[in-house]
Write a structure and sequence with these properties.
- The protein is an alpha/beta fold and about 180 residues long.
- It is about 40% helix and about 20% strand.
- Helix 3 (about 90-95) packs across helix 4 and helix 4 (about 105-125) runs parallel beside helix 5 (about 145-165).
- The chain is globular.
Length: about 180
């Protein structure tokens, strides 16, 4: 079963997603697929916070900021594994800006990034028992952004749309309250 958990920053989506994995898998079968590249002090603090939140919960962490399907090589019995992929938003950014973020047209990379992220997630989730995917809602702030951010948001929106269509369950978390959409 694949579950997408979607919400804004600080919405409680990560905690809810962890609870889903904890209720669906015994320790030893819980895998946290970490996609964030900790850049700067704020990034390191976020990683430390998530590590503390998972402490003692029986997760095995696999760092996989790009090429998400490669995480499968580090899972001994995938058919018994339950994954928490945290988060799709970081994965999209990492794949989109894997080299010089100012080089080339970001709009030209969108189809390749979307295809790579979707096929990588599908390749991974089809081999495991269950997967919970976490992604961000970055679309409701009403702000105007530069062309790089707009291209990223477009790619993320396309990935979120496809993941929601392909998932067995979809939850949106707002202010710590999960609402099942599908």
């Amino acid at each position: 079963m694949v579950t997408l958990v979607y919400g804004g920053s600080g919405s409680g989506k990560s905690e809810f997603a962890e609870d889903l994995v904890m209720s669906g898998a015994e320790p030893g079968h819980r895998y946290y697929i970490a996609t964030m590249i900790a850049a700067g002090e704020e990034g390191r603090r976020r990683v430390e916070r998530h590590v503390k939140l998972r402490s003692g919960k029986g997760f095995q962490t696999i760092e996989c900021p790009r090429n998400i399907e490669e995480a499968l090589r580090r899972i001994p019995r995938p058919e018994e594994a339950v994954l928490l992929i945290e988060c799709v938003s970081n994965l999209v950014a990492n794949e989109m800006f894997d080299s010089d973020p100012a080089g080339g047209s970001p709009d030209g990379k969108i189809p390749q990034v979307v295809k790579k992220v979707i096929s990588g997630i599908e390749g991974l989730t089809q081999q495991v028992r269950d997967a919970v995917l976490v992604s961000n809602n970055i679309f409701d702030d009403g702000m105007e952004y530069d062309h790089l951010t707009v291209a990223y948001a477009k790619a993320l929106g396309m990935v979120n749309w496809q993941l929601a269509a392909d998932s067995d369950r979809v939850f949106e978390v707002t202010a710590g309250i999960p609402q099942q959409i599908r």
